[in-house]
Amino acid sequence: MANTIETIKNWSNKKKVVIALSLVVGIAAIVLLFSWSQATNYAVMFSNLSEGDAGKIVEKLQQLKIPYQVTSNSIMVPAEKVYDLRLQMAAQGLPQGGGIGFEVFDKADFQATDFVQKLNYKRALEGELARTISALAEVDRARVHLAMPEKSLFVKEKQPPTASILVTLKSAKSLTQGQIQGIVHLVSSSIEGLNPNDVTIVDSSGNMLTRPVDEMMGLTGTELDYQRKYERDIEASIRDILEPVVGKDKVKVKVHSELDFSRTEKTEETYDPDGAVVRSQQTTSEDSQTSAPAGVVGVQSNLPAKATPQSQGGQQQMKKKTETINNEISRTTSHIIAPYGSVKKLTAAVLVDGVYTMKADSKDPKDVVYTPHKEDEIKQYENLVKKAIGFTEARGDDVTVINMPFEPLPKEEILPVKRSYTDYIKDGVMVTKYLAPVMLALLFIVFVVRPIVKSLVMESAPVVKELPYSRAGGGTAAEREYEAREGGTSSKEKGVKMPPTEEMTIKREMTGWSDWVKENPSQAATLIKEWMGTEEPT
Asked: What is the rounded distance in angstroms from the CA atom of residue 196 to the CA atom of residue 386?
């Protein structure tokens, strides 16, 4: 250790500065690379937040002591904690969906004017509706705009309220007509006097989602969905009844239906003249009998105090009968409501594949013979289809079954995924992130540490004592000449003088070397190692 320190002290200032700078730069580079490779990978937790939601989320992250980064439109947290933190924030009702709700009235402001109060109510109502719509799984964000005219005393001047909704859907998500109608009725039911037809829904791409009436067919979105569902059910029924006979995937069906979505109510009253029924009957019967006076006709009979013979008079009899009958004619009253979505006409086209058999003398599974179905079989299939769909000839239904060979579908080839240059760059960065510190450490050891250690070891080697021939008075003139020519370079740097030249006598050389090796075995070993390390023997 002492020799190493002494060797370092003997270095020149230039050498000390170069080695010190190399060590500092190498260590700093290794530290920076290790710090970069171990740096936290951040991912987006929430984006496009309102200022209120962003502030509350940052406050919660500070309470949980979670590192975070805030950009212009997002909050980033460590990638491995993104989903856990989202669940924690959702449990606490964050984010609230952007926009203020009815919490605007939590603090009473007695100085607010009536206009400000109405404006705050409108803002709160829009915010609450936006939060409710954003609760749908397919909706990422929603904004609601309400137009609520002032109430007028005159009915003719009364303007109905309207609503406009902008929804931003999540990636690869879409809303069905049922969900759209649900949003419409949700908003219309939340605002007094709002008609569902006055609610407009638009997505972030500007597409109109609410379609009250289809431009081509005059049907609403709900009616179109019902019609398509009805046709799919009929197609499934045909496939279910034919596939067990002809084979799976050997039946192609297409059904077109004409449905009547008109609502009809009819009231009928029918009178049956032949179905008279006695309602009431009244009968009155009258019988009377009277007698007429008798006598002689003439003057004699009319003279006073003159008795005249009386003759017997006649009798009158009268009968009267009255009958009143009230009849009730039978009447039928009917109130008929036509069914909604009744079938006006059905058209079905069915394509059936034939039978494939392998040739007897061939072993290739692709070498097959196509055999079409017989005419009577096709007729049977047609009858089955008619029974399955409820065929009615009176309304003009039509069913067509055709037997044709199917073209074999080409096998889907799994194409290699084309990678962009960005993907390769990302892979290179990931590999470099982990391998760069190791490679730099190895290069630092090989090109900096190893040369310095080797230099220290070589310069701190023990000084070899003077060879025997130099102790014997300097040797011959040839020896002194050799020392003057060769010894000045090697002996000063290594502390060892070179061996005698060939002009010396063999006896003197062997004797001197033998004695010197016995006295200095370790130095002799060092000298031999140096000889073995030289490129050309001297």
From this structure: 41
